[in-house]
Amino acid sequence: MVVSPLDYDYAAKRIMSFIRDSVKKAGAAGVVIGLSGGLDSSVTAVLAVRALGRSGVTGLILPDPETTPVEDVRDAEELARSLGITRFQIDIRDILEAYERSLPFYKEHRIANGNLRARIRMTILYYYANISNRLVCGTSDKSELLLGYYTKYGDGGADILPIGDLYKTQVRELARRLGLPKKLCEKPSSPRLWPGQMAESELGMAYEEIDEILHLYVERGKSAGEIVEEAGISLEKVREVIERVHRSEHKRLPPPIARVSKFTIGQEWRMPWNLR
């Protein structure tokens, strides 16, 4: 068993309720979702449509021909059509080239350029959200969030994260139960931030191993040695996952503030003037 058993029917209902409540609380008209043609965004889009209806979901397909395979665009388009949602496709290559002309050393920094792609997509998602009074619906799962395997203020920039408490392996199983096409359920994960990038190759292990380590460490409080003994995974892999969790903590926290007032966290805060 990779992670603890999950009641998938309950999880789907809980996530749909979360999406509806979040939109209602914000007084929004719905959500905007970036459709990559991959597993996570597809599952998130299906749940959002079931929660809000077709009119409540807008899909944005934001390819870069240099890094986005044609089949990913095709899969995203097919999903949007099958769901009956409004979709827009915007090629981000022209935007990237404008940055390339303006930024020094652009061609020398693959990771920085990859993160730039993710942040460009985030700004477009928020633009469409702003003009249509919608929330940006993020698509990161629990495995990615705990590993920090996302771009800060890129695909990590969102108003809500509906599947953020589901491990990658759980998202795959939920996709099957939701009736998504087999090719989406089994498609290897990739942020597509540079040509040929594949998640499991970059992380150095399969998500089945990653999720088991994360579950034992984060939720059951096991030490590295105990995880090796219980899961039969090498100490090197266990340590790498644990180190990633701690190295990426800054991504999961709001920016630290230099406190200069007497106010401290935990005290009740009141307006210093009477607005009544």
Task: Specify the number of helices.
Answer: 12
The CATH architecture assignment of the largest domain turns out to be 3-Layer(aba) Sandwich
- Total discrete domains: 2
Mean pLDDT: 92
- Secondary structure class reads alpha/beta
The CATH superfamily label of the largest domain reads: HUPs
Order of helices and strands: HEHEHEHHEHHHHHHH
CATH topology of the largest domain: Rossmann fold
Over all CA atoms, what is the radius of gyration?
A: 20 Å
Main-sheet strand order equals: 3-2-1-4
CATH class of the largest domain: Alpha Beta
Low-confidence stretches: 271-276
Strand tally is 4
Largest sheet descriptor: 4 strands, parallel
Terminal CA distance: 58 Å
* Helical percentage: 40-55%
Bulk shape: globular
Strand fraction equals 5-15%
Describe the protein's architecture and organization:
The chain folds into two domains: 8-197, 3-Layer(aba) Sandwich (Rossmann fold); 204-252. 50% of the residues lie in helices and 6% in strands. The chain is built from twelve helices and four strands, in the order H-E-H-E-H-E-H-H-E-H-H-H-H-H-H-H. It has a four-stranded parallel sheet with strand order 3-2-1-4, sandwiched between helices. Helix 2 (39-52) packs parallel to helix 3 (70-83) and helix 11 (224-231) crosses helix 12.
Keywords:
alpha/beta; Rossmann fold; four-stranded parallel sheet; single chain; disordered C terminus
Short recap of the structure:
This protein is of the alpha/beta class and 276 residues long. It folds into 2 domains: 8-197, Rossmann fold (3-Layer(aba) Sandwich), CATH 3.40.50.620; 204-252.
